[in-house]
Specification:
single chain, mainly alpha, 62% helix, elongated
Length: 110
């Protein structure tokens, strides 16, 4: 069974992903024609897995499994945060910036 400390840390990591559950991450009017449609499946997967995990009795996980899951979540959360903060005026090439974020999310999901 996972320790309380590890369960609390895992729960906190899951909350960083779950805060985006009701956020429009695929397209926004201020992005114009640029969107994250290519990342839709990855976004949905990240949110779905996080919702499912959050509803499970995490204390029943082994320390190893809980630690492995906890270690994978920050990269997913960071990608979702980058999508949420995406701006076409942030410099560089907006399509390239979008593609980089999509690739980072894909790698985090895998």
């Amino acid at each position: 069974m996972a320790t309380n400390e590890l369960v609390n840390a895992l729960t906190k990591e899951l909350e960083t992903v779950l805060k985006y559950a009701d956020t429009q991450l695929v397209s926004r009017p201020e992005w114009g024609t640029i969107n994250f449609e290519n990342a839709r499946a990855d976004i949905e997967t990240a949110l779905s897995i996080s919702i499912d995990l959050a509803s499970l009795p995490l204390q029943e996980l082994t320390d190893g499994a809980a630690g492995e899951i906890q270690g994978a979540i920050p990269a997913v959360a960071q990608s979702l945060e980058q999508i949420d903060g995406f701006s076409i005026s942030s410099g560089g090439s907006p399509p390239e910036n979008r593609d980089d974020i999509c690739n980072q999310l894909r790698n985090a999901i895998e």
